[in-house]
């Protein structure tokens, strides 16, 4: 009987010498996409920024944008100012003057203390409200507010509910791009409500986060799919990935706080009130093209939110310095 | 060469290999392959400073991530991820016993589909992508020893599943052949 690997080799659905995807010169589409990448700004493009979809017809996008403006205008005319759609890009959080900036080391110590009784416990899944900017090289940027709740069941299956909503403007229409183009939808419009079949993975971020700062750093490095040491901006992006998959317990929160306290380049800047009205301590990290602000609970050290703002204007995308690129606020 | 030139060279050299990698995991849905590959190279472009001297295993790692869950987001990409999460074909359950089950490819696929996703991936990387253990480690983002161990265990489990699946298919095949030649 043939070796199992030989059998598997014979079952290769797309062999290199098959009729499709064989080696050779690039086709027209692949060449065009390569040129498009090489034309991009070589430095400073933040990693999480949604890019324009290649090949999207200009006319379609233009019509969609026109429709948004028309719908917005109609709503204003018919409904008055109290039902103004929540389409405006949110302003960046402001650090309150005269407040004390708590060093991360002290906050980590509080987190360790708060974790003494082990509660709350780690839970797989997330509850996050996010605002993310979508850009196009042909139209002004738009901000898409969403709320996402992921819950895992004992059998390894999970549910994911995503709704379009902006808690800063309850009841007002919001922008959504669920059809690939931005359009106004009602507040709490369900973008997707799905149940996923059981799945298991032993790799971060699906695997359980460790309770040791060094191992957590390795975990986050793997979650970002790199083998090189994470820079501080990359580490914060990895924290976002982690919190988009897990609701940390007190112990994991303390581990994360200790990890952050041992990370260079995070400056305490004082107190802020986040978009959900929660008081937090802000820690800022300046990276290429973007500033990240981590907001942490002053008592427990839990990460409440992460805001990323542009530090340079990108006029070809209609982006001004200081604009909010993305914002995530995590809840239990 | 600058990083941009190195990236462009890697793109040209490995575009079709990455396309095959993606196509093998999307069950030949060619219209989606191109979209995912574009995403892979967009991510690779952003991380081009990390591009190793032998970039293909690293690109497979990026592709794996793109296919798995990294592209939660906007428009067409979101719909693709939704399909990956729900579509039976993404989990290999589209292969059902039928007349085509007599062909060796079908029952080997069936045996493969009975393994965990992690086992499947280490086997596919080794056999279909033809990676050495060191390269599998790069693609999976783990150490060489861990990759070797995963491959060893996955081979054993594949062997078990082949033994479970093969007798029925083989017996059927023999019977059909016997009738045909009889």
UniProtKB/TrEMBL annotation, chain A:
Return the annotated region ranges for Disordered: 1-30, 192-213
Write the protein's name.
CU044_5270 family protein
Species assigned in the record: Streptomyces djakartensis
Automatic annotation (TrEMBL), chain B:
InterPro entries to which the protein is assigned, alphabetical: RNA_pol_sigma-70-like, RNA_pol_sigma-70_dom, RNA_pol_sigma70_r2, RNA_pol_sigma70_r4_t2, RNA_pol_sigma_r2, RNA_pol_sigma_r3/r4-like, WH-like_DNA-bd_sf
GO cellular component annotations of the record? DNA-directed RNA polymerase complex
Ordered alphabetically, the record's keywords are: DNA-directed RNA polymerase, Sigma factor, Transcription, Transcription regulation
Q: Which SUPFAM superfamilies match?
A: Sigma2 domain of RNA polymerase sigma factors, Sigma3 and sigma4 domains of RNA polymerase sigma factors
The reply on keyword Transcription regulation is yes
Check the record and name the NCBIfam families matching this protein. Answer: sigma70-ECF
Please state which protein family the record places this protein in.
Belongs to the sigma-70 factor family. ECF subfamily.
What is the recorded name of this protein? DNA-directed RNA polymerase sigma-70 factor
Which species is this UniProt entry from?
Streptomyces djakartensis
């Amino acid at each position: 009987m043939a070796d199992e690997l030989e059998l598997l080799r014979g079952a290769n659905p797309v062999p290199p010498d098959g009729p499709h995807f064989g080696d050779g010169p690039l086709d027209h589409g692949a060449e065009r996409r390569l040129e498009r990448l090489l034309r991009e700004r070589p430095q400073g493009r933040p990693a999480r920024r949604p890019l324009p979809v290649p090949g999207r017809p200009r006319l379609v996008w233009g019509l969609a944008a026109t429709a948004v403006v028309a719908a917005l205008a109609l709503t204003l005319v018919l409904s008055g100012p109290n039902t103004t759609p929540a389409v405006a890009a949110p302003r960046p959080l402001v650090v309150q003057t005269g407040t004390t900036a708590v060093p991360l080391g002290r906050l980590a110590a509080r987190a360790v203390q708060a974790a003494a009784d082990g509660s709350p416990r780690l839970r797989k899944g997330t509850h996050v409200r996010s605002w993310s900017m979508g850009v196009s090289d042909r139209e002004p940027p738009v901000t898409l507010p969403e709320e996402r709740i992921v819950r895992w069941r004992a059998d390894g299956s999970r549910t994911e509910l995503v709704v379009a909503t902006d808690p800063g403007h309850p009841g007002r229409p919001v922008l959504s791009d669920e059809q690939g183009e931005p359009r106004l939808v009602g507040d709490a419009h369900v973008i997707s409500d799905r149940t996923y079949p059981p799945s298991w993975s032993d790799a971060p971020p699906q695997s359980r986060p460790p309770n040791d700062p060094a191992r957590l750093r390795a975990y986050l490095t793997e979650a970002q799919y790199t083998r090189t040491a994470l820079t501080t901006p990359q580490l914060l992006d990895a924290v976002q990935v982690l919190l988009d998959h897990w609701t940390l317990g007190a112990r994991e929160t303390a581990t994360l706080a200790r990890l952050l306290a041992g990370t260079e380049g995070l400056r305490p800047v004082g107190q802020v009130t986040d978009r959900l009205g929660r008081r937090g301590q802000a820690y800022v990290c300046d990276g290429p093209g973007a500033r990240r602000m981590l907001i942490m609970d002053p008592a427990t050290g839990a990460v409440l939110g992460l805001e990323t703002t542009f530090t340079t204007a990108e006029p070809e995308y209609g982006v001004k310095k200081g604009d909010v690129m993305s914002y995530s606020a995590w809840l239990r | 060469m600058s990083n941009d030139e190195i990236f462009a060279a890697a793109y040209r050299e490995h575009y079709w290999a990455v396309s095959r990698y993606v196509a093998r995991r999307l069950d030949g849905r060619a219209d989606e392959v191109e979209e995912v590959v574009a995403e892979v190279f967009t991510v690779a472009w952003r991380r081009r400073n990390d591009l190793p001297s032998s970039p293909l295993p690293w690109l497979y790692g990026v592709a794996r991530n793109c296919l798995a869950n990294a592209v939660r987001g906007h428009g067409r990409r979101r719909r693709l991820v939704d399909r990956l999460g729900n579509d039976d074909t993404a989990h290999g359950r589209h292969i059902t016993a039928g007349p085509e089950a007599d062909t060796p490819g079908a029952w080997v696929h069936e045996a493969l589909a009975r393994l965990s996703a992690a086992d499947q991936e280490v086997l596919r990387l080794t056999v279909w992508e033809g990676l050495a253990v060191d390269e599998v480690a790069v693609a999976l983002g783990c150490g060489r020893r861990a990759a070797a161990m995963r491959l060893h265990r996955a081979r054993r489990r594949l062997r078990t599943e082949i033994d479970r699946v093969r007798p029925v298919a083989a017996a059927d095949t023999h019977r059909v052949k016997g009738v045909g030649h009889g």
